[in-house]
């Protein structure tokens, strides 16, 4: 069978082609969107946005020569719409990434819990086996009691045999 050209081999991954010499890391973009989404939910962001809106409206109402956006504030409305159009997908992307991390974490927790349960069941079986084995083994108290009984038997037997031997001697 003839050897296929290296570009056509199916058992090896294809070498990635660079287009225009730029390569984007999707994970880096995801991290950036999470930082932006996290910043959009802070009090600092709300403070600076409120301050910008107040300055914008004040300059457009009070400063006659600086009126770049008259009363209905169409440009300000356009800025808010653009911000909302970009903020919503960024927040959703950040939430999706967090869901993926939560899913992985949950799976690891389930695996760890299953392993802990298996270990606990194994230890319970081993403990039960040890209890059964200890029940069959002579304990110190049992041996002490048996030795005491033997001592009492030995103490009582020589007296009887002494009494017999002295009666036979006479």
UniProtKB/TrEMBL annotation:
<keyword id="KW-0812">Transmembrane</keyword>
<dbReference type="InterPro" id="IPR010406">
    <property type="entry name" value="DUF1003"/>
</dbReference>
<keyword id="KW-1133">Transmembrane helix</keyword>
<dbReference type="Pfam" id="PF06210">
    <property type="entry name" value="DUF1003"/>
</dbReference>
<feature type="transmembrane region" description="Helical">
    <location>
        <begin position="74"/>
        <end position="94"/>
    </location>
</feature>
<feature type="transmembrane region" description="Helical">
    <location>
        <begin position="45"/>
        <end position="68"/>
    </location>
</feature>
<keyword id="KW-0472">Membrane</keyword>
<protein>
    <recommendedName>
        <fullName>DUF1003 domain-containing protein</fullName>
    </recommendedName>
</protein>
């Amino acid at each position: 069978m003839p050897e296929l050209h290296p570009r056509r081999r199916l058992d090896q991954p294809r070498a990635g082609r660079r287009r225009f010499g730029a390569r984007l890391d999707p994970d880096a973009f995801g991290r950036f969107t999470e930082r932006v989404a996290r910043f959009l939910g802070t009090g600092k962001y709300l403070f600076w946005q409120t301050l910008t809106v107040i300055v914008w409206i004040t300059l457009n109402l009070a400063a006659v020569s600086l009126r770049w956006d008259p009363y209905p504030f169409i440009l300000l409305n356009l800025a808010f719409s653009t911000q909302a159009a970009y903020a919503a997908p960024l927040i959703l992307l950040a939430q999706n990434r967090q869901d993926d991390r939560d899913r992985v974490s949950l799976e690891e927790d389930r695996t760890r819990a299953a392993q802990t349960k298996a270990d606990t069941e194994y230890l319970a079986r081993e403990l039960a086996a040890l209890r059964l084995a200890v029940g069959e083994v002579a304990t110190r108290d049992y041996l002490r009691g048996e030795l005491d009984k033997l001592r009492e038997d030995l103490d009582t037997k020589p007296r009887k045999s002494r009494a017999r031997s002295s009666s036979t001697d006479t």
